[in-house]
Design goal:
It is built from twelve helices and 16 strands. With about 450 residues, the chain is α/β, with parallel strands linked by helices. The structure holds adenosine-5'-triphosphate (ATP) and magnesium ion (MG). Magnesium ion binds next to helix 5.
Amino acid sequence: MSDALIVLAALAAIAAGLRAWRHLHYPSFWLAIGFPLTAASVRASWRRVALGCNLTKKRQRWWFTTVPGAIASTGLVKVRRRFQRVAVDTKPFMWLPLPTRHGWRVTLHTLEGQTPGDYADAAERLAHSWGVHAIRVSSPRPGRVVLMATMRDPLVKVNELPPSPDLLKVTVGRLETGQPWTIDFRTVPHWLNAGATQSGKSNLANALIVGLAAQPVALVGFDLKGGVEFTPYAPRLSALATSRIESVSLLADLVALMIDRMGLCRQASARNIWQLPPALRPVPVVVLVDELAELYLMADKSEKDEIAKTSTALLRVAQLGRAFGIYLFCCGQRIGSDLGPGVTALRAQCSGRICHRVNDPETATMTLGDLDPAALASARAIAAETPGVAIVAGQDGQWYRARSFYVSEQTAEQAAQTYAHLAPSWSEITTHLPEPITA
Ligand SMILES: Nc1ncnc2c1ncn2[C@@H]1O[C@H](COP(=O)(O)OP(=O)(O)OP(=O)(O)O)[C@@H](O)[C@H]1O
Ligand SMILES: [Mg+2]
């Protein structure tokens, strides 16, 4: 009796120790205990799971099978063993699972006739079968599929905004894979940032402002919410438009600036400002637009001309801005074609897409375009309790679930004050362009 008690006490102590280890240092617990057990169970269950998720194929195999033979005089059926071809369910070959920061990943060999899409369709069923938060599917090369499992949602809590030392590159949050979520304007110059109200659009703009404030970059704001969002950041902004009229003139300035820079590049035989010698290179301009739809909404016919001007100017900036160091970051609740052809054309120019929580499937479709349907489903599944979570499509053609770091208005305001001295004045940017080189 006492022996049993000792064993029970020892087991309880081990269980408590493991719990404490898991709680205190999850990464080492996961590598030493959690992952080996999970990997063994994934391998052991693969046949059943693949069958249940329709990922197996019938194949003909030679097999010893029992077949009923003649009925003996006693009335019993004689069973014979015969070597014959039978159809068996074959599962895709699975390599050993490997641990990742938030779960595990495993490579599979696809069976004939299968595509990565078949695995993506089964991703939710696979996640439920293995009891993990999510399974993401990618295909590094033909015939191979990588399943990436995340045990728990890594985006429930993301830590502090790190400093962003590289020019025009800001780490704004964390991807579901655990990697940093970076917005790099030199790789993807123009971005669309959509989402329902309170989904985290302005928080992301704050993160960008904080990241860019310390860099030698001019920031320009269009805040059609009457300036309530961006006015506190005015010390670091080189220009701010808060109404339609102001927007028309600021956009006209931007177009003129672009044409000036075009001339400068032409004279120096440079294709873009980055090919100019550093002494001649003009300052890059990042244009932040909040409530994009307001630029296109028409209250009455008298506004038609203004809207046409705004729309054309914004589109020109999007089409030509990249080479001349003018980058766009447009936020809006809806960025749909119902706002007019200008928006559709602008959308086509913005290769960076961010879709926060949306209320209707069309907004997700309009923002993310013709990405994988799983991305659209994922965007619609973002919960209201996790503002800042978004689906991001960037330079590599892949989509990711990501969450921005929380950046309060006060933090962004503080950064704008601290780096106010780095804000070039608008007149300096627009009128004192460096003298072009004369050959
Ligand atoms: N990444 C995040 N982490 C934690 N909280 C966040 C995050 N992003 C946003 N929030 C919270 O969600 C709230 C709404 O965010 P935000 O103001 O950015 O939404 P929005 O999409 O700009 O809304 P609106 O369309 O009304 O302007 C904020 O008050 C903030 O506290
Ligand atoms: Mg907002």
